[in-house]
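cache lookup: miss for this entity combination. No prior model stored, computing from scratch. Input as submitted by user K.M.:
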Amino acid sequence: MTHSDPSRTPTPEEAAALVREATADGYADTAPDTVDQHDAAEPIHMPSPSVWPITAAFGVTMISFGVLTGWAFGIFGGAMLAIGLWGWVHEMRSDAA
Amino acid sequence: MATIADRTAPSGGTIAVPAASSGRSRGVYAWITTVDHKKIAIMYIVASVIFFILGGLEAVVMRLQLAQPENHLVSPQAYNELFTMHGTTMIFLVVMPILFGFANYIVPLQIGARDMAFPKLNAFSLWLFVFGGILLYYSFFAGAVPDTGWFSYAPLTERPFSMGQGVDYWILALVVTGIGSIATGVNLIVTVIKLRAPGMKPMRIPVFTWMSLVTGFILIWAIPSLTAAQAMLLADRSLGTVFFDESRGGDPLLWQHLFWFFGHPEVYIMVLPAFGMLSEIIPVFARKPIFGYTFLVGAGIAIAFYSFLVWAHHMFAVGMGPWANAFFGAASIIIAIPTGIKIFNWLGTLWGGSIRFTTAMNFCLAFIAMFTIGGVTGVQFAMMPLDWQLTDSYYIVAHFHYVLFGGTFLGVLGAFYYWFPKATGRMLSERLGKWNFWTMFAGFNLTFFPMHILGLMGMPRRVYTYPDKPGWGAINLLETFGTFLIGVSMLIFFYNLWKSARHGEIAGNDPWDAWTLEWATTSPPPDENFPVIPQINGPRPLRDAKVSGWVLFPSDETRPPAKPSRLDHIPAAVLGVVVFVSSEVIFFGGLISAYITYHGRDEWPNHEVLEVGKVAVVTAFLIASSVTLFLAERALHHGNNRGFRRWMIVTVVFAIIFIGGQLAEYRTLYNDDVTIDRNLFTSTFFTLTGFHGLHVIAGIVMLAIATWLSFRGELVKGRDTSIRAISVYWHFVDAVWIVVFSVIYLWPLVA
């Protein structure tokens, strides 16, 4: 039982049963009545994992730690922040290319 | 994208997602590098739960200490540390981040988006919270635990009264988490504004998402006030400035104003998302649409507005004068009106509904009752005579725990039971849930309700022990018993999480027969959330699909044409920077207000040491740099890359001239022995201009990178979002300087 033709309106009971069935389990089963069938879906580009946000955040934290403990940690934190931001910018360039 | 795996989408098309088969993206590495909003949300929640355990243990030790009069289980110093860490932990490391976690998970799903607007910034925010929390708790190992309360009032926090580094740990850890919170606010705002599915007009946005959006605005406008105050306090402690040092003319009350300008909106940062949770859960389990949606949303916005006008009701006891007291008292009464509207919205939703008493619903119903008690006692504090009697007593402790525990925390537990199936694919046990609920309800009331009585009897808060007055010992013992009942309840909850995640009943995609979009995908959702971006036709899109056959996921051919929005032409990055600079306005506003507050109090050195003429010249260069940047943008818009690069170089040179001029002024002043620690003028002058200078330097770096990208052919017409975003920032930095220059250099001339 599908509802691929959007012009046809199922009865409320029929539709509710269809969607409950369709959204019951598994991604592949999500679609029949709530998704139009079509062949040429655009590829979905999800953002890639990145190590740079955690690197930059660690750098910010180490700068703070350096204020508390000594300049060496602060310089280390600054370097980590710079590396993190540089990698971040580099990834943005790659994504844009 | 480094690696792509294609898989068949339900529509028959292909979905390109980062491959999970790569060795790099498995296990711990996959979690620490993820930018997926759902995984980030889970990490927010897990980390918050860990900090909750720490903060909870601190509360248990405090209650053991208070279980009987004249007790000496812990020392006064240890008790100070315990209540400071308990409050700081629960507010900054538990409630805020756990709400960020829920918002991260639910908001993109509810608006039909694939992720947050800025996924990497989202990860950055998470890790700042985690590392900031670790930094705060490292203070235990460093032997310098914060001990001045979560509000860290000056002058107690000034160096002479707090010689150790505890206050410094408190400041710096919260600055780290604060940066992350502002970034989260920016992300939430841009996500909701820019990434809503087609057809999701403002009045179709689910209430939880609405409240998350409003919370985002409060975050970006409240936290900078705390950050500015912390910068001043750190300067006092580290550089010898005198912002809050009364012995040298500073004013400790300035700390209280700046802190509570943050602190009261902070209450709503912690409550509004919970309001949103209730507004999702109650309709589903009452089988009715939310009652008075428009008023509910409007009340949330009104609360956000008024939250910035009531801060000084925390300061009635300092003696601000009748007019200030009257204003803040009246505003505090008024803010109860939109809050009361929400209570009636929920009651109206329940009225005539087919109520299902699930555990999630039980927690929401308990929220309404408990939060109302907390709200009523809150309104009482708007009346000055009562506030003067009750302030700093256990009545206050009872009040804010009824708001944040009886309110927010019970709401969060309800949200766990409601959305856990979506995130894990399994149901939490309802049987254990009922045990969890009733033990929590009983434990909470046993712990906190008697505090009202103790407060009325005169027991002060923040004391490590108390005399054996009639009834005090028995009531305190009862509260300690209640605390252990809460502990038992939480153990049941954790066991339920652990057991149900492994063996819970399979949830399916829509176990509650709900109406919002998060239930229109799998449990848990796939990386991309939805097969195609949904099309919305009403405030309850999944119900539309179920009842009227609305096609949620249309093909391109059948999708209605999108209606253009006025915001369409503003890229997300540009909007993000606009939102961010609005946050910076508050930060600089705090520093400028400190300068204005202290202006004219010093005989020498004061503004007369400044060389207005020289600074006016470099100011002209800075203002000119805004013009040259505008010309650079215009050149790029016309496809003139050489012209763009030329104007960009001129902009950078002008900016460097400005910074050079500022450094030269600093050198001259220091040679004349006008140093930052001399007096109020030098404290405010160097701090304000120094922070502005740091912003200029950051801007120069960004402008230089943009110029370099242009030389590499990566910044051209059509790919110019980055320079548009940088441009907004740069013009803002220039505008701030115009204000700073006017206040510091021109105002004395005019006066």
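stored under new cache key. Residues 12 and 18 of chain A are 10 Å apart (CA to CA).
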